[in-house]
User: What shape does this take?
Amino acid sequence: MHYLILQYPGHNWVYYQNAEKLALAELSIASRSMDAALEHIKCIDLAGIRYISFIASTKLTTHDLQIISQLSFVFALFSEVEHSLHPLKIPPQQYVDPKISSLLKYKGKTNELFTRMMINVAVHYSNFDSNAPLELLDPVAGKGTTLFEATTFGYHAYGIETEEQAVQDGQTFFKKFLEQERFKHARSARVIFKNEEHKPAQITEFVYAKSKDEYKNESLRRILGMVHGSSKEAHNYFKKERFNVIVGDLPYGIKHGNKAGKMYSSPTRNPFHLVSECLPEWKKVLKKGGTIVLAWNSNLINRKKFGDIFLNEGFELCTEPPFDQFEHRVDSAIKRDVIVAKKR
Assistant: This one.
């Protein structure tokens, strides 16, 4: 059967212009989890409008429609019958309203559609069921865009961030959002780790559910946690092999300078040092069969050199199509790419 997806126009014209190949790659990877086999995934033009077209081996199942509903680029889905397009209802699958990621605005924020795409790639290439309440870690969380996107999937989300103000801003925003959306929730904070070298790392956790009745059932609760600390201490903050996926947008500009080495040392624009130092620790908290998906500025370090870091740590690196189709221009100084690796 022939299907067409009308792409979501997004919030950014530059991103939309680059979104064609990103959408093709995301759908190709997500199709690994679908019941129907997809073929001939491509972009087509109908009356000047761009669609993602594909052929399914069978009629799309409810499970397939659920997966499609969570893809970052989907605005509407049609089946093609005798040269006519028939709109299909896509079942809403959001645990938290997707508007959450667009409400908090700040300079340097990652496009939430791009963030959602990275989560989909990580989950559907992992060995885990996308419909389960998976656990996600963002080791460079900033103010929490990746965490907030994870809540829309109903995942447990944790982030690590060195900048105290960013952590406070993210926590304040999420608390206000839960209150406004009338989620039953509880907030707690505690020191999670300390040593002589670094300031004590503190975690703030929000346990929440859609209603009071659901909150009473532990299996229906979700958790969002933000750690103010150093990402290279991830293995001291969390139990071994805790997370299903690790997703993050690495620093790629002067505004986004990462802090390699000590928690409060001077920033560097090159992600090579941060990942080289932290990847062994991230690996410890990632489950076997779990994936790590990171975005970085390929103007600073090429894919081959960056990929070698993961190979040296024993990861399975995804280099074949469509995993090599994520590179795109953000501005004159930033060419963003995505690396995907799985823990054996």
Remarks:
- The longest strand covers residues 286-297.
- Residues 95 and 154 are 5 Å apart (CA to CA).
- The chain is about 30% helix and 30% strand.
- The first helix runs from residue 13 to 30.
